[in-house]
Amino acid sequence: MATVEQTPTPAQTPTPAEGAVPARADRWPAVVAVALGTFLLVTAEQLPIGLLTSVGSALSVSEGTAGLMVTVPGLVAAFSAPLVPMLVGSLDRRALLLGLMALMAGANVGTALASDFTVLVASRVLVGVAIGGFWAIAGGLAVRLVAPQNVPRATAIVFGGVGAASVLGVPLGTLLGELTGWRIAFASMSVLALVTLVALLVVLPGLAASQAIRPRLLVEQLRNPGVRIGILATTLLAFGHFSAYTFVSPALQRLSGIDQRYVGPLLFGFGIAGMAGNFAAGSALSRRVYRSVLTIAVALAVAMPLFLLLGRTGIGGTLLLILWGLAYGGVSVALQTWMIKAAPDAVEAASALWAAVFNLSIGLGALVGGVVVDTLELQGVLWLGGACALVAALVIRGGRSLKHLR
């Protein structure tokens, strides 16, 4: 997820934004610390995806029910993204980020120690609050941490944490869970949260609120046709992907005949492919935003249904998982770039709105996917994911006439 208000050309320098700092005050350690925070938060949100079978067995719930571990924080984060900034008003953003990171540490301790599924879900509610609030604020921080000419690079680093979490955090967490147990995997999230909290405490400067987020400001963004297309495309792609990817572990085992012990390494391969897709998309987006986003949507529309046709063997399933990873790896950077270029004068508001719909779509996708898995089997979620991506591609085509998104 990269770039800021406008992607600069060699002859174009970003306009200084409110709160921007002079070159001598560049705070690259703070940028990296915020990126670590976004990586941690999104990893914690999606970590259950690779551990559904283990958690379900340990707590005696079905895989569909275990999917609530993804649904609940996604839904809570969706409402927290706009609500947390509005509720805290002018509170220093540094204090807010530190508080949210402390909340994340405590919430994951609760997950690791949960004695039953109800307690576990309650802890995931707190995870959702931390995710939504942190993600909404992090989106607009780059312009306040580095000089204007360095903003594109800093923003790429901050949102690179989100992309890296989606494609690397879950596979690594799954691998750790398979080797040591799912409780240890969640406990490790608490340790990483504490490390991030200390890093933010040391390197993040005071960040007085530069613009209050009000309901009216959020509503105004929906009058922008580029924002509307971005929101709808985000909803469809995130919903479709997570309706299927939440259950990728049982899909690999049942459809492709892959042993459970190899799922973690395969999801790591998915992550490596996703990182490659992230860098490829970031490069392409600097030249053509519209075409890049459309290509990603079409690739996902093909990859998920094709899994049912060519993924019935271990080799076929592995190859299609890699293709899926390549395509999804560019989603976060592509959609965030689309939104910021669509609303260059309201970056924080657009980021909060985008974070809300993205997380809502994650939660609803996992929820609907769980219902489909419990009623129509695994094939249903792969068809659903592909159909949503196809509709998203058609929606994105509606933005081909928007000059600033070409």
What does this entry look like structurally?
This protein has a single domain (23-405), classed as Growth Hormone, Chain: A. Mean pLDDT is 82; it is low at 1-24. The protein is mainly alpha-helical. The protein has 18 helices and no strands.
Order of helices and strands: HHHHHHHHHHHHHHHHHH
In whole angstroms, the N-to-C terminal distance is: 17 Å
- Give the CATH class: Mainly Alpha
Domain tally: 1
Instruction: Say what the CATH topology is.
Output: Growth Hormone, Chain: A
Apparent shape: globular
Number of helices: 18
CATH superfamily: MFS general substrate transporter like domains
The low-confidence runs, each spanning 5 or more residues with pLDDT under 50, are 1-24
Proportion of residues in extended strands: under 5%
By secondary-structure content and strand pairing, the structural class works out as mainly alpha
| Count of strand segments | 0
CATH architecture: Up-down Bundle
| Helical proportion, percent range | over 70%
Would you tell me the overall average pLDDT?
A: 82
Query: Biggest sheet, open or closed, and with what strands and sense?
Result: none
What are the key terms here?
0% strand, Growth Hormone, Chain: A, 18 helices, disordered N terminus, single chain, mainly alpha, 406 residues
